[in-house]
Amino acid sequence: MESASQDINLNSPNKGLLADTMTDVPVDNTSAAAPPPPLRASAYNGLTEAEEEELRSELAKVEEEIGTLRQVLAAKERHCGELKRKLGLTPLDGLKQNLSKSWHDVQVSNAYVSASSTLEDWNDKLTQSEAYKKTQETLSQAGQKTSAALSNVGSVISRKLGDMRNSATFKSFEDRVGTIKSKVVGRDNGGDELHSPPASAEKPSQDNAPF
Fold first, then answer.
1. Residue 156 CA: distances (Å) to CA of 26, 97, 132, 204
2. Distance from chain centroid for Cα 184
3. pLDDT: is 19 or 152 the higher one?
4. pTM for this predicted structure
5. If you average pLDDT over residues 89-103, what whole number do you get?
6. Of residues 66, 68, 93, the one with CA closest to residue 81
């Protein structure tokens, strides 16, 4: 034990012999080893690399077909435009036709039919409700009362006007206006008679007619 402790002592003259005595000791390097690389994750769960590659190939074919169909559609649209131009159809006519077709599609759609039937049901329920009937009766009575009130107001105004025309003040005023009017009309007639040329001046005499 004493010789072993002397070899371990760093100040011992035999400190270089420690490495030689420990060369045969096995060393565990498992903790320092690098972890294995993780498995490659597929784009879709549960797919192998072969299945993924097959799907990618099919996707490329579908995209190529879509591009071809777009080119065909563009060619068809150009041909359609040429036919419309030859027929004299304007873009406005096409817009009207598209709007008419869209409105027809909306009318025959299930959502529109369902909404229309729902609104009709609501209308029937509303018109048959007691609150609606009471409101309608109230409005009808209010309209009748308003009409009667307006009729009474018209009658009162007509009566007041009749009374005013039959009053002495209005008759006196009317007589004065009539008198002034007759004087003005008589003065105008008299002026016309004074300034009217004689008949002999309007038509030359037969005696003074040139030869």
1. 131, 61, 36, 67
2. 69
3. 152
4. 0.28
5. 85
6. 93
Residue 202 structure tokens? 């309007």
**What is the tens place of the pLDDT at every residue in 6-16?**
445 555 555 55
CA distance 130 to 136: 10
The owner of tokens 């060369």 is: 23
Query: Which sign, positive or negative, has the C-alpha torsion 66, 68, 73, 74?
Result: positive
Q: What is the 3-state secondary structure (H, E, C) of 85-136?
A: HHHCCCHHHHHHHHHHHHHHHHHHCHHHHHHHHHHHHHHHHHHCCHHHHHHH
Q: Are 154 and 162 in contact (CB under 8 A)?
A: no
Q: What average pLDDT does the segment 116-122 reach?
A: 85
d(CA 149, CA 141): 12
Q: Closest Cα to residue 13, out of 23, 26, 3?
A: 3
Residue range 95-124: average pLDDT?
86
Radius of gyration of the chain (CA): 59
Question: Which pairs from 144-149 meet CB under 8 Å and 24+ separation?
Answer: none
Length of the chain: 211
